[in-house]
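In this section we walk through a basic example: taking a raw amino acid sequence and producing a predicted 3D structure, encoded as discrete structure tokens. The instruction is simple. Fold the sequence below.
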Amino acid sequence: MFRRTVLLAALFSFCVGTASWAMMNTATIEDIMTKGHKKGGFRDQINIELKKGTPDWTAVQTAASEFKTLAEDLGKNKPPKGSEASWKKACDEYFGYVKELDAATQQKNKSKSVTALGKIGKTCTGCHNAHRP
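The resulting token sequence is shown next.
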């Protein structure tokens, strides 16, 4: 009986620790917006490169991949205001466009990359109106 109790306590501690670790490693909304969208952020870096006649695809692909990793965390945060359902829908749409951008850059497809970047930009106003405090 004692052995089972100790085992259950250890398992519970592991689960709580794992959940805490995951929460601590989730980028905040502020981090995502700063690193992804502010001047010099991933979106800006990619946009600058795509405006060139011949983009530095290695730089674009790296930025898009890091942007995708960051964007995946947005939906793991709680909305500062507004409904959870609206937040989930907005985050899913945003992440879908960032994934689309990443895929287009991996294919070195400038046209699709520009289109995906434009779609990402169009998600800002609706999400900010519904969820930005």
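Looking at the output, two observations stand out. Residues 6-11, 14-23 have pLDDT under 50 and may be disordered. Residues 69 and 81 are 24 Å apart (CA to CA). In the next section we compare this with other chains.
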